Amino acid sequence: MTTATADPGAPRDRGRPWSLSKAAVNGALVLATAYTLLPLVWLLTAAAKNTGDLLGGRSLSPATWHLGANLHALATTGDGIYFRWYLNSLLYAGIGALLCALVCVCAGYAFHVYAFPGKEQLFGLVLLGVLVPTTALALPMYLLASELGVVNTFWAVFVPSLVNPFGVYLARVFCAGYVPGEVLEAARMDGAGELRTFWSVGLRMVMPGFVTVFLFQFTAIWNNFFLPLVMLSDNRLFPVSLGLYSWNTQTHAFPEYYPLVVTGSLLGIVPLVIAFIALQRHWKAGLTAGSVK
């Protein structure tokens, strides 16, 4: 009686392990998506609830909607102080991120194009700045601002937002990938000066990097909380993040602030969503530049 032996060259049935691994990956993606979207769904529904619904745990219930009343209360509380905070955040983040992106691209362009003594050592200091957490710099910046007499002013929060070591590093990487030396040399041969070459040729070519640095810095400044907390005491200069925090600290004594904090938080993410949607074409091009280089 002979025993059948398996042919070592025969293909193995791998369908079942593959389907299990596919189901596991899809399940993990579903959980990650739910984990990401659930806070946003809660914020959308909770912004339309009154104090009783929020304290009673009915934030996700579709039964009652008070979004109009919440927006009216948000606009009238403190003589409309919330929208002053909103304007402050737009100034801090919008102008600050724009100027910071320009400074970073200029610095990255200079590090990429020009050769000067101590270039790599100076760039090493920039990389060292990336490793220093911003919270560790808050106290030294406060002491410096105090010496300059700008504590509790717009400039105490605005000027530090113009510096971003990671943005300089990122801009140099983008310049290395987007700005070939032959194009710059051709512009110089045509009679363009260094500033004209940068503004008309280099900046145009590295625009995806400019937009990427702008979006990163805009998000960082908009969500910045600790630096304004240290620098500011006048609530008329608060950004949205610090203003909502000040309201949230009063909710134990004044529960009517709960809907204001939640509705204000919902409005607070609108500029971020608009910025990413409006600039996503340039941002995606910047993120995928390395894969097609």
Automatic annotation (TrEMBL):
Its main location: membrane. Pfam families: BPD_transp_1. CDD domains: TM_PBP2. It is a multi-pass membrane protein. Gene3D superfamilies: MetI-like. The keyword Transmembrane applies. Signal peptide: none annotated. The keyword Lipoprotein does not apply. It comes from the Bacteria. Residues 86-278 form the ABC transmembrane type-1 domain. Keywords: Cell membrane, Membrane, Transmembrane, Transmembrane helix, Transport. PANTHER family: ABC TRANSPORTER PERMEASE PROTEIN MG189-RELATED (PTHR43744:SF12), ABC TRANSPORTER PERMEASE PROTEIN MG189-RELATED-RELATED (PTHR43744). Belongs to the binding-protein-dependent transport system permease family. This is Carbohydrate ABC transporter permease. It comes from Streptomyces andamanensis.
